[in-house]
Amino acid sequence: MTPRIEPLRSEDAPRCAELERALFAGDDPWTERAFVEVLAAGYRYFAARDDGTLVGYAGIAVLGPEAEVHTLAVDPAHQGRGIGRALLRELLVHAGDATVFLEVRTDNDAAIALYRSEGFTVVGTRRGYYRPSGADAFTMRSRRAERMPA
After folding, report:
1. CATH of 4-147, one of 3.40.630.30, 3.40.50.720, 3.40.50.1110, 3.30.420.40
2. Could you confirm whether 103 is annotated as catalytic?
């Protein structure tokens, strides 16, 4: 499948919150309101759609020379099809020359492998980062030069 990537809309907030509850149940999933607020604040958020259905979303904040990935999620029924990679690449395009940071659970092997394959490296560990589960997170970083193909 080739997902269609487009800007996330406030009407997508209920579906995003539904996916949050399914994917991040033990770690304080975002609410509909949280999605509406980040969109209203002007952050860059994108939706992946399969035949009109939202199957993934991702968001980034670009703050001058640095950017932070807020979230990246794919419906479990659609994982392993390149949707997460397509969303991540869209975020990186919008990051431009910024150094991009993100946090990822230390036990999320699939996400870590994706991020590494797109030029991210682990630069630290945040103990107890995810609440309420207390799971640890790696902080990962990617610089523009590291993302450019040789």
Report:
1. 3.40.630.30
2. yes
Q: Cβ-count burial of 33 within 10 angstroms (0-12 exposed, 13-18 middle, 19+ buried)?
A: exposed
Taking a C-beta distance cutoff of 8 angstroms, is the pair 110, 74 a contact? no
Asked if 26 contacts 66 with a C-beta cutoff of 8 angstroms, the reply is: no
For the chain, give the longest Cα–Cα distance.
42
pLDDT in tens, 59-81: 999 999 999 999 999 999 999 99
How many Cα atoms sit within 13 Å of 145 on the Cβ side? 0
From 57, 103, 118, 129, active-site residue: 103
Q: Distance of CA 74 to CAs 8, 39, 52, 97, Å? A: 14, 19, 15, 26
Which of 20, 57, 90, 115 is flagged as catalytic?
Answer: 115
**What are the pLDDT digits (tens) for 19-64?**
999 999 888 899 999 999 999 999 999 999 999 999 999 999 999 9
Name the residue type at position 95: A
